[in-house]
Amino acid sequence: MKVSRLVSLASAIAATLVMTGCSSNVGKTPADAQPTNAHGVYWKQAPKDSIAKNAFSLAGIDENFSDQKIKAGGAEDKFLSTLLINSSMGYVTGGMTGLSIMSFGSLYSATDPEYLALTQYVVFVPNKSNLPYDHESLVRDGAKYIYNYVKDDQITMGLNPENQQIGVKTCKMDISIINKWSYCNIDSTALKGASMSNDMFGFQTIRPATGTELSQLALPNGNYSVIRYTFIPSSVIVSSATFNGIMIRSDDQKYTMPGISASIKGKEYYLFSDEFGQKGFPEKTLKPVKK
User: What are phi and psi of 170, to 5 degrees?
Assistant: First the structure.
């Protein structure tokens, strides 16, 4: 992925520029990790930020997220406290309307260049051979892992998991220098049931990692590549309970709980400040279909 090296270099330079007064080696090793959404450098948590805000930063999302304060004793405080106690999502019809963080318009630009309206998968791909974090084989390994993880849902949609694995192995990398997302393309007419379009998946190679960046991930210490994927179709909300990474769920009206979230190990984390920002809420589900 020689073109990808250019992207990585640009990200590393950008990371250096925003770290005023720091040496050019900042972020190059785990010891020099930084709390930044810039790509290509090691990352560390910002303790005062919510788990969700940290997760989005770790995932390299180029958006300015803010944690929202919940007024003690208010309606939102009581609602969220009850939600944590009974662990039941239900169909949220009230109690959250006063929170700006629940508004689609408060988070996304008109063009949504990060595709935050779509489900995304942030995978910690094991890198045992110590390859460059943006190596093509690691990109394919991560995509293979996702397609295998969501295999049952793919079958439900009439897609062919075997051909999907072939597609992941043989798709042609289309690396973008200007746009945020690169793609892996196939001929969907020749490889039946592999994808709903010629885009097998979209991806961004984010950074090298150790697996210890967020304790909620419960990953063993090691050498990883963090890669973010999109355009992988889904008909349901797939649980993140055993997923090796983060599922980024959009603020979608089809979901029982509004608001963008970071789903980690079966819990949803939202952009709340203080204690609510550190708590994992029950996973989103689809709203019941009205008869």
Answer: -110, -10
